[in-house]
């Protein structure tokens, strides 16, 4: 059994509901080309005449793996760029070509095992591997870590196991002698814009999780709100009643609406009951709720946000985006913990 990583930025929202993974490239049915690298390269050159020659061997390897090398029973990890989570599934069918759909016609049926998994649960080396610049790739060095997650009864059990193990013993070096694969791996090492962005976001979440205590995270959240133009004060830590921060727009806090903020210093997913708990602390009128966590939210929790106009959910993805957007306005103590600088990088995907 192999473990694969696959990126899909175009129709990511359809994968879980539709029960499949997919890749692009308009070549028609790949079974007509066959499991032959030279024929696949020729088809790419013919159908994509503007493609750079250096990309042809990389793309051909990806398509061959997707159509012919991925086996039923293999596991797949699909990062969701829209919310910064991971989806884990099992390949349950052979390659299918879907000419009736507009995009990503090359598909493999998948039974999803765990979805909406926060990236922050995993060590940065494992996240770097699945942040590959390639569309499809073998997960080789950190399979034991991802397998342990799938076997764990809860995220807390997995984190406890991870804390008690030496990460160096959980990674495996797998050098390749295949010249075509070496070309792909060299391309995979390129510092693309997307990969640098993901690495930066993971760094922010990991730093906030590991270097801050819960009370410090409340103060960071309050300072982030201040950087955004709000007035904010942290409530008494010993008796906050579930409300950690009070925020408002006017300097004195006398004008509605009052914003009650609840912070969860964790990457574990939060569900509808926890969000409803914050709703229960709001007055019927003139009070809004803001739920903040470093992880993600269940679909039921996200649905509750859509149902109620007075509640907003900030997860790890939103925290990183706001931290980057308002970084220069944050107090120096947070910028010291999160040393970042703006750079220009090549905007290229493979």
N-C termini distance: 26 Å
Q: Outline the biggest β-sheet.
A: 7 strands, mixed
* SSE pattern: EHEHHEEEEHEHHHHHEEEHEHEHH
Provide the gyration radius in Å.
23 Å
Structural class: alpha+beta
How many structural domains?
2
Number of helices: 13
Helix content: 25-40%
Q: Into which percentage range does the β-strand content fall?
A: 15-25%
Based on DSSP secondary structure assignment, what is the total number of beta strands?
A: 12
Low-confidence stretches: none
What sort of overall outline do the alpha carbons produce when their principal axes are compared?
Answer: elongated
Average pLDDT number: 85
Considering the chains and any ligands shown, give keywords for the structure.
Trna Endonuclease, Chain: A, domain 1; five-stranded mixed beta sheet; seven-stranded mixed beta sheet; 38% helix; 2 domains; alpha+beta; 350 residues
What would your notes on this structure say?
38% of the residues lie in helices and 19% in strands. The chain is of the alpha+beta class. The protein has two domains: 187 residues, no CATH class; 126 residues, 3-Layer(aba) Sandwich (Trna Endonuclease, Chain: A, domain 1), CATH 3.40.1350.10. The two termini are 26 Å apart. The model has no long low-confidence stretch (mean pLDDT 85).
Give the gist of this structure.
This protein has 350 residues and is α+β, with helices and mostly antiparallel strands. It has 13 helices and twelve strands. The strands form two sheets. Strands 1, 2, 3, 4, 5, 6 and 7 form a seven-stranded mixed sheet that branches. The protein has a five-stranded mixed sheet with strand order 8-9-10-11-12, with helices on both faces.
